[in-house]
Amino acid sequence: MISQGVGGIMNIFLDYVLIFGHFGAPEMGIAGAAAATVASQSLAAVIAVFLNIRKNREVQCRLSLHPPIYAIKRLLVLGAPTALIMSLNSLMMVNYNAVLNRFSSTAVAVFGACCRVTGFCYAVLNALCSATIPIIAYNHGAEKKKRIDQAIRFGYLYAVIVMAAGTVLCVGFPEMFLRLFNANDEMIEIGIWGMRMLTCCYVLCAVRNMSNCILQALGHSVTAMACDLSRNYLILIPAAWALSLTGILDAVWLSVPAADIVSAVVGFLLMLRFYRKDIKPMQG
Fold this sequence. Notes:
By secondary structure, the chain is mostly helical. It contains eleven helices and no strands.
């Protein structure tokens, strides 16, 4: 929490400084947003490593030139899909920005600002998902169906509550958040509708992300990865390009809730399928 929180706050501060050129820094625009992200995430990574070395007594970190092969294989099987998703999500951002750039650079700046604000909600959601995965995985191995059911029920409940609160704030007060980025009148005009469209289906995002984390906990990480990637590359980007042909920027933002709705339904149905297959037969 400390490392992600510092990274998120530093990202917002550096966006303000480097995009618009405050405190003696050059006005870098989109390049400033990129530099802010790299700098803030690098700082968060350093803090995370430092805290693990100093505070994590359960796991001893040490460098070895001959790690066990079984550990490497297991790490790649479980971690490769997540790493691939993160990499391809960055590519998705590039493609979405390319669509918005057909209208104006201000639209790109609005999308970046909205992503920074909504990133706080996703940080909490991802933390809930990360906490849910080991609970379900451990009890799946122990065949404790009751505990798995409780973890799934409370996981969905808390995820929906967090994202519903984010929806209320972002849909109700979009201008307030945009002002944090020293937004001009054009950015405010574009950003109010854009932020509302990006966050109106937050509750469904909670369902999708929690469904994917349950799939990962049950060992179906490739299925979870396919669900996530289909949202971005089969729905979001094609819909954004198609809607951009209307020449109306407000129409492009509709691609986000459309992708969220479809991916939430698909993710939940996949979760139900594997729940019936892997968990329902258990007796514990």
